[in-house]
């Protein structure tokens, strides 16, 4: 049987997907929600066919994932304006000016010259232009590389970013495959990340750097599970210096270094050394920017995501509604301080009382830690879900895949007449996601109980 005959159906689906991705990247306005969701649902269905229904070669699927990403190479992101801020920070830093000390608006007022400054500020929006940068140093380095390579070209910088994103995803595919083999899970699981239209659109298409952060983090986990904790610690620190999210996972390594076959003193030494290497490496990446003013500006900007911004939240929206009923105003200032504390308490409880001594136990703990964090967050942009999605492929839980499908509903907020969040669609999203999560938790708990009861049954033979 020839290649064409054998792969006729997959090739037809592949061509259809390429056409739909071209339409998504080149002919879609964010405000056209009906077209957006129609294309997205169709692409998700095709991804499901590729991953679950057709028995395809690993390398065929890997090549498809790369081809689908290359479709977006010459497009300007159409669902997010964040990349304009990336360009601004990179061009500012290329001139030796810290983006942590000057907002775009204040830079202009001080007479700093940035190529295409008006276009960049209009693109990022006045709200973004009034804040200091909150992107960590490794991100800033990548922004600067794009600025130096592309010069005055916005599209040139976008292409540099996309090359970085695609290389990071290929790295995730490589280490993800090896990690799945190590923990005896189906290798096809990694394609729920690599072929997922959510990842292709949000990371490669819309230029969010979650994929770069996740590349370093998954590489780190792979090394950790091979016993190379020093280099794992370095890579975790690098991932934090791309995006701060991995900081949430640091307490969860406590039980990993508490294995019975090693003495308690050696466990404690290894754990403290692990954290010390992470802390030192993070400090080194931040050192070129370090100043008291930087600390103030960076922490103030980070706090905005907890106490000022609201988007696609779940539990917080319920709390906000209760607040309006009781006190008559938005209580985000108070809730935004309390909810992170609850997340921290949950993570500490998981770190102290859950086993977390096998790779799958540790990654499952991370999955639930990040899920609870987003459950209690005031702002959940679509690309945030990349982290729980990738973690889920190494576990028994699939609710983040459902989430990556339903998160597209959040784009209904961007209509032709401006921003108008549809709370009933937010409710649909979270009811289905967390309903499915609860179902999976109950199912897995029942399975574990049955497994334990079978082990305890006396051998009657």
Automatic annotation (TrEMBL):
One Gene Ontology term of the molecular function aspect: hexosyltransferase activity
Cellular component terms (Gene Ontology): plasma membrane
Segment forming the signal sequence: none
Pfam families: MptA_B_family
Highest taxon of source: Bacteria
Keywords: Membrane, Transmembrane, Transmembrane helix
Transmembrane segments: 7-27, 33-51, 58-76, 154-176, 207-225, 232-254, 274-295, 338-353, 365-385, 397-414, 423-442
Protein name: Glycosyltransferase 87 family protein
Organism listed in the record: Aequorivita flava
Phylogenetic placement of the source organism: Bacteria, Pseudomonadati, Bacteroidota, Flavobacteriia, Flavobacteriales
